[in-house]
Amino acid sequence: MSNDPIDPQVYDLYDEYCHSDMSRRSFLSRAAALTLAAGSGLIMAQSLLPRYAEAETISFTDDRIKANYVHYDSPGGTSGKMRGYLVQPSGDGPFPAVVVIHENRGLNPYIEDVARRLAVAGFLALAPDGLSPVGGYPGNDDDGKQLQASLDQGKLFTDMLNSAYFVKRHALSTGKLGTTGFCYGGGVVNQLAVTMGGDLNAAAPFYGRPANSQDVPAIQAPLVIHFAEDDPRINAMSADYKAALTANNKDFAMYQYQGTRHGFHNDSTPRFNQQQADLAWKRTLDLFQQQLT
What we know:
Layout: H1 8-18, H2 24-32, H3 41-48, H4 52-55, E1 65-73, E2 81-89, E3 95-101, H5 109-120, E4 124-128, H6 141-149, H7 153-168, E5 173-182, H8 184-196, E6 202-206, E7 223-230, H9 232-235, H10 238-247, E8 252-261, H11 274-292
Parallel strand pairs: 3-4, 3-5, 5-6, 6-7, 7-8
Antiparallel strand pairs: 1-2, 2-4
Helix pairs in contact: 1-2, 2-3
């Protein structure tokens, strides 16, 4: 990261922007006010904003997959109904299933692309939109962030839990289920491992809030846990999680990726680290291949 053209102060401000109620206008204004030796804080801040169209890796028209939006019941959730992006490999199936949990802003194009990547790899992938009961992902992350923050978080988790069971029990599913997620979604993945117990067969959270130590005994799924090197907010909790998993003899591997920041798998912003993201993704797919197929 020593050769990174973006000043660490701007990265820190961006992390605050992503994980608070700070508006885009305020983020850009505060970045512009920074006095930086390396250049304009405003230009650096603008470069960090996601560019989803440029980052797409698997087209929704790719002939290796079939993708559509599905609706299903979600008792106890925000509205009792949910919508998700379901992507299957071409062919008749059944396929092992994976539920993909989005960040703190709803089902944006990056998460849809992750679901397509999983389908290309042979999995039935469901990416639920936690915002669907209140109108769905609004087309931009700023409004999505505000909308998700306004929801009852317990009901939102219930919607994700119901989504996991929906794809696990889907007619195209073998009944084997894995889950992965990013940031907020990584925290949900850790909590799904606690809540689902033996109903979950594998979990790969990316830089998410760990499960509470007292809840770790309930985890049965093997875990591959991904952390960034420079992510003090999340990393401050990782040592206790590792200790609890070890003390309870859980099947897990925990990795911290050198030269990375929070969000390093997201290829729509400069936080993306190609080499380390590819390694983390390979480890995730290896886990799913080993545990679900």
